Amino acid sequence: MGFNKRVVDDFFQLLGGLMDQYKFKPDRIYNCDETGISSVPKSKSKIIASKGRKQVGAITSAERGETVTVEICMNAAGTYMPPFFIFPRKRFNSEFMRNAPIGSIAEFHQSGWMQKDIFEKWMVHFIQFSHATQDNPVLLLLDGHCTHTKSIELIQIARDNGVVLLCFPPHCTHRLQPLDVAFMKPLSTYYDKETTNWLRNHGGDVVTLKQLAEIFGLAFIKAATMTTAINGFQKTGICPFNPDIFNDLDFMAAETTNVLIENDDMAQVSSVPPLPVIRESCTLPEASNSTTDNEKVPDPMPGCSHWNDQTPKVKKTTFKNVSPEDVLPVPQQTLENREKKKRNSRFRGKTAVITESPYKKALEEHQKNSKKFPAKRKVTNVKKSYFPNLTNLPTK
């Protein structure tokens, strides 16, 4: 539903405008994306076994593993930026980066996921790697994750250093993002093979976070080829610029979901009228099981054996006795919830140039109007008998 012709045309229209304005060359067009790697690989390569065998075993690290987020970036000329690791730990541990790829950087967070402040640090390293300046700008293509599109500090850093941020439309990265199209699948395959080789060479040991960077580095070197990057940008129509890379057959899956929608100033909100609620006291006509000679009801299923001339035919019922008083109005609370949902959908996700002034001003206004106040503290009953050594404790 998300990958439709109208959305893709809007994206290429923005991309074409930036290409005409800044004259980006292939080595100045970058794409970044996050991926999660685990000490226990998600996929497993094929295993050869004898025919008819019901249980086939394979060597594995453990039943469950820990996930590490890796930020990957490449450009249309085939150059890759060293990976950026985010480990699920609170404190820095240098052993996690042992034998990691040269130039790679690590950050530590208790969740192991990308955060706004961490992505701002990555942006600083990206500016140093790409040598971006206001006189020699670069184009960075990224998805619409909140860490990319809802940070005023990130937008300011990018604007001050000549980085133009262009966001992909939602639910389209599987066809428009070069990393998803050409790089992520080979990387996952090579990582599975390297993990299996490590387990075979270290019998009885399991892969932990201390060996993960080393194994990932071996897989990254094999997957990060110049041909892969160039083909990824070419298949998506980004470089060389080709807005007609997708034909009508590619958009056929979204044809059944194309409906008329009304345009909001920042989002597209579906206009579905509310269904009326009818009171139980209203009278409805009863269906008649007999037909007159002049009225002929067609056979609903011709040719079926269980339908014959003696089968009773029912007329279509109509709501004739429903008065306006019998229709309940839509509750005011429901209308308020709809308006609130409509206002919150302004930044739901849309292809846009994030570093432009209209987007920045709209984001500042959105953050100013949606300040979250701290919730009231929940008070529970406390009995004094539970704390015999303490006095003057409140009962609530």
TrEMBL record:
Query: In terms of domain of life, where is this protein from?
Result: Eukaryota
Q: Which residues form the DDE-1 domain?
A: 66-230
Quote the protein name from its UniProt record: DDE-1 domain-containing protein
Question: Region Disordered: which residues?
Answer: 286-310
Question: Which organism's genome codes for this protein?
Answer: Macrosiphum euphorbiae (potato aphid)
PANTHER family for the chain: TRANSPOSON, ZINC FINGER PHD-TYPE DOMAIN-CONTAINING PROTEIN
GO terms for MF: DNA binding
Q: Name one Pfam family in it.
A: DDE_1
Entries under InterPro entries matching the protein: CenT-Element_Derived, DDE_SF_endonuclease_dom
- GO CC terms on record? nucleus
